[in-house]
Amino acid sequence: MLTDEEFRLFRNLIYDEAGIYLKEARKDFLEHRVAKRMGVKGLSSPYWYYKLITDTEKTELLLLLDLLTVNETSFFRNGPQMELFRKVILPDVMRMRSRDMQKRLRIWSAGCSTGEEPYSVAMLAHEAIRNAPSPFLPPDKGRAGGMSGGAEGSDWDVRIFASDLSLSVLETASKGEYAWDKVRATVDEHYLSRYFDTDGTCYRVRDEIRKMVVFDFHNLKNDNGLSNLDIIFCRNVMIYFDEEEQRRLIDKFCRSLNPGGYLLLGHAESLHGLGTGFEFVYDNKGTAYKKPEQGKKSGA
Questions:
Q1: What CATH number should be reported for the domain holding residue 191?
Q2: Could you say which of 173, 198, 223, 290 would form a disulfide bridge with 279 (CB–CB 3.0 to 4.6 Å)?
Q3: What does the pLDDT look like over 167-194, one tens digit per residue?
C-alpha cells in the first residue's frame, strides 16, 4: 500500500517528468502500477523503488510511465474526424502550400501509440496527393517527379513525425505489423489492397507508407524542436494533463504550426475556455482547430 506521503512523492515526480496529473482518486491506480514494477525489480518497499527511479535507474521511470497511459488505438479511428481531415483539411493545406509554391507537408502525430494513427494519416495524404487535381498542382508541373515518401508521379515532399512517451509502443509502430483481425476490423478493402501486405496471420504496412513516417521518443513536457508544421494530431493525450499543462501544450502547438495550420484533438477534448485564438472547424461531426492565417483575426 502507498502511504499518502508516498503517493504524493510519485504523483509529483510523474507530473514534473511527464505533465501527467493524477488526482487523489487515482491513488489505487498508481499503487497497482508501482506494485507491478516493484515485483519486476524484486523490491518490497515503495520508498526504495522511488529511490531507484530517481537516483540510480532513470530508464525504469520510463517503464512506469508506460503503464500510466492507455495505448488503445486503431486505424482510421474517429471516422468523422478522419473524413474531415481527408475532405477539408488536407485540400485546404495543399492549396495554401501550392499557392506559396511550397509543395511540402509536415504533420506531427503527438502521442502516436502503436502507429495506427500516423500510418492512417500517411495513407490519406498519399491518396490526396496521388489524385490531386488542379488547383493543388501547378499546371506547368503536372504530375512529374516523385514524392519524397511515396505517391508516385508527384513531387510533393511529405513527412509525418510520430512521437510517444512509450518505448514499447514505438517499437511496435516502427515494425508496422498488426494482427490480422485488428486491421480487418477498421480498414476497408481499398486501403487493404493498396497499402498492406499479408501472410494470412498479420498485416504489414507497405514500405511506401512506412517511409513517410518518422518515429521518435518524445516527452510532451519537453520541446522537440518541430516547427513550420501544417497539421498536428494530438488525440486523447490532453486528458492526462491539468489545465496549466494543457495551456502550455496548446501554446507549444500554436508556435509549431504554420499560419492556417490545423490541430486535431480527441473527441472528448476541447480548447473551450482556454482562450487560445484557434478557430473551431466542424463538418459532419468531425472537429478540428485552425490557426488563423496571417492578416486574419480569429473569431475565437
A1: 3.40.50.150
A2: 290
A3: 889 999 999 999 999 999 999 999 999 9
